Amino acid sequence: MINKGPLSPPPSTVGRGKRAQPTLLADATYRNPAIFASGQTALYHNDFLNVYKSWPDPTVIISDGAYGVLGFDGDTADASRLTDWYSPHISAWSKKATPQTTLWVWNTEVGWATLHPLLTEHGWKYVGLNIWDKGKAHIAGKNTTKLKRFPVVTEVCAQYVREATIQGLTVKEWLLFEWKRTGLPLYEANIAAGVKSAATRKYFDQGHLWYPPPPEAFIKLVHYANLKGDPAGRPYYSLNGKRPATKEEWLKLFPKFNPIHGYTNVWKRPALKGKERVSLDKNGAAAHLNQKPLDLMRLLIEASSDPGDVVWEPFGGLFTGTLAAYLTSRKGFGSEIDRDYYLMGIHRIQSALVGSSTARPLPQQPFLYGERNE
Ligand SMILES: C[S@@+](CC[C@H](N)C(=O)[O-])C[C@H]1O[C@@H](n2cnc3c(N)ncnc32)[C@H](O)[C@@H]1O
Does the pLDDT at position 16 exceed 60? Predict the structure, then answer.
């Protein structure tokens, strides 16, 4: 259910005073719809926690919420309160995530360190930490001599995934467990999978050498086990208890990752400035102090999903992640609690939809969800 009632204002912080007032949005075009929906993109003016249940399961979740730096209304004053702030959100993501889901968590380094135990407690498996290095230009002109530390020019973006379990076993454990059930010797798995020794050395390894068999090898293993294994124990390698698993079911047990050529876990990329920064007030002030680079959001999405997949952006701001989802042909779902940001965000998305230089053509089915927004 969408709560369309008035939202209670989040506690005030320094963020509000600094940001632009969206005077241009006084234009009658903007009726403050609770939902803006166009083609595969849906934006909600609401607390994420009120709306996510109606969203399809995510392949990608991009979290860019509280940093503990009073960056927007409702951000906390320091990292120590981030656990409380994120707790209901992480719990919500965990309920709807699947083994294919990747979670990207933007934050400061201490913010991420604070959240890491909470994420693992909720079943998120840490994959890696990426550093956005904004370069020295970020501190140019600032007096850094009084600082008692090196000047900070970075943000981090941590990658987490879910781990599938089958009958209480991890995939790694299940692969070996099922083979043992067949009664066949372990070495025969190499013959079954058509590999020299990878089945016994890798697919059945229970330590760090393990990696899952590619789908073709898995299917060969499955066929062999069901053909030659002890008939009393069939089916082997079944996910539904009725028949052996298929290639499609096997693929769904893992998060997606498409390597992007040339990228390491350090992203050298200047902070947003100039035209890249959205400005919608008449003085040209930044619309949102926390706007993220579109190219980095695209990178996350392209690395961890395919066209047609669902991308969640719970803390939309100007909906950079949802815009990146649109530009890469994913289904984008975003929510933003603050009315001004939300309106500026839909203005931004709408401009992309109707043909900025980077936008794709307007989708054929423009209004799938909620109200029309013309
Ligand atoms: C760090 S900013 C996101 C900036 C965004 N990534 C961008 O590029 O524009 C976080 C945003 O989350 C919003 N927010 C905070 N709590 C929220 C909640 N419970 N539901 C939806 N939005 C929320 C804030 O108003 C703020 O605009």
Answer: no
**DSSP per residue, 296-328:** HHHHHHHHH--TT-EEEESS-TTTHHHHHHHHT
Predicted local distance difference test score (pLDDT) of residue 73 = 85
Q: pTM, whole model, 2 decimals?
A: 0.86
Q: Which residues contact 177 (CB under 8 A, 6 or more apart)?
A: 169
Write the pLDDT tens digit of every residue in 209-221: 999 999 999 999 9
Name the residue with tokens 């079943």: 123
State the first-to-last Cα distance of the chain, in angstroms, to the nearest integer: 23
Q: Which atom of ligand 1 approaches the CA of 75 most closely?
A: 15
Nearest residue to 337 (alpha-carbon basis) of 4, 86, 64, 7:
7
Ligand 1 probe mutation, 63, 67, 290, 327, most atoms within 8 A of CB: 290
Question: What is the reported pLDDT for 373?
Answer: 34
Give the Cα separation of 198 and 183 in Å (integer).
Answer: 19
